[in-house]
Amino acid sequence: MSAIILSRFMIELTSPLSINSSDRELLLDNKLARDWNGLPYIPGTSITGVLRSLISTLEPELNEDKWFGCTSSENGNSAGSASQIVITDGLALNSHSQLLSEPLIMQNEIVNDPLYSIYMNNYFRDRTRINLRGVSSNRAKFDVLYLPAGARFVFDVYAILNDEETVESDKKIFDRILAYMGNNGFTLGSGKNNGFGRFVVKGSYYKQVDLSDMSSSIKVIRDFTENRIVPLCKDPYFSSNSEDAPIDKYEKLFSFKVKVNGSWKFGKGDYSANIKDKDKQDNSKTDFSMSDEKIVWNNNVFESEGLTRNLVLTGSALKGLIAHRIDYHLRRLNREFAGSVKLDDDGNISYSSELLSILGKVDSNNNSAEAGKIIMIDQPVNYEQKNVIKRTHNKIDRFTGGVINGALFTEERIYDPSFSIEMLIDRNALNTLNDNLKKAICCTVEDIKLGTLPLCSSSSRSSCSVEISPDTEFINQALYEQAQKQE
Hints:
Elements: E1 3-13, E2 41-42, H1 44-58, H2 64-68, E3 70-72, E4 79-81, E5 85-87, E6 90-92, H3 107-112, H4 114-119, E7 123-130, E8 136-146, E9 152-161, H5 167-178, E10 199-210, H6 214-226, H7 236-240, E11 250-264, E12 286-287, E13 291-295, E14 307-313, H8 315-333, H9 353-359, E15 361-362, E16 369-370, E17 374-376, E18 379-380, E19 388-396, E20 403-415, E21 418-426, H10 427-430, H11 435-450, E22 464-468, E23 474-475, H12 477-485
Parallel strand pairs: 12-20
Antiparallel strand pairs: 1-9, 1-10, 2-6, 3-4, 5-9, 6-9, 7-8, 11-20, 11-21, 11-22, 11-23, 13-14, 14-18, 15-16, 17-21, 19-20
Helix pairs in contact: 8-11, 11-12
């Protein structure tokens, strides 16, 4: 007997999501992918591509061509085959964690829903590329449009099992494929190496339909496709198979919980860290730390006050900061000193080739590119409201020592905050690191622990030190032991 397996997943973003279309918003570099209602969505092709990539990388014996289709066999002796797995687009849920009754909705329904109305806004981060000197590269400013963490989506995954003789074995393989929904390598959209696109499965549904009785099976399939009910809890079937979960694609290199002693600031933002100041400030006069919006649910319901703003240590900034120090140690170990370092086509110092193999790279003509192998995740900053202060500064003329007219500005700083740092690396890349790169990573970890790697803005005039909580310290022992053997 042949069969169809019907499954439905409801996911919640744990980090911002950036899936862009080919268009551009006015005054922005890109535009979020939006559906026919103008709401952000996750294309089914995007979900399929990530899932297929994971299968082909971690378990190629599952034969991804059979399940996801192919145009022709590798040797060209046979024609292609259709996919046995169908994945629908991920549609955004409303403020009650539900899809609306009809696929096409009126504009006033979007405006009247507190969450859908938020989705119509544009949220973005201003970014700039940092060179080896730790400063902004010339003409390297860009922005990243994103959807806030906490957004919820629902999508369906069907499996068509046509071969009556292999239905049971194919069902086990399909169940194995679905288990990758919880893999730490399953991230959606762009910016995954900077912590974007991460999610958790909040609800799921699973049902196998026997096609031997066509009349009843058609009714079940029609009810499933037309029924827009969203699962709000995980199906017991998935919980019973959680022990046989696939190995994660990324392995943790190190993680710490950091406590700052003194005043601290990081990044560039437009909003005050003081929650009493919810309105946007005059950022031409005040310098704020980076903050992001987050959608918070209360018993699966979102209310207008559920959009919170949190101070965040961005993964992209952490990645640039740590990569800069790793490159320093790597060049020191390789004995590449000033005068012997090669410049790139723009006359700048580029990262060493060994480090670029895990950071990712693109040539100056954009003809070839290689994705990065390490991931730095956005980290929330914890602090007390009473510790948010403002400092007023004057710009001083370096020749006369006098105050420059009209150069008064204010910066907001935070006393004694705490946050975590975590770096993940592709398991396959971890096994290919050379000895000096392993040592350079370990030396950077020691710098963080000793407090000699500044984790703040304006480090040259900042009066803060950091300490690592011993009970939260984790260092990949395999990497550390291999590096120690080479000493």
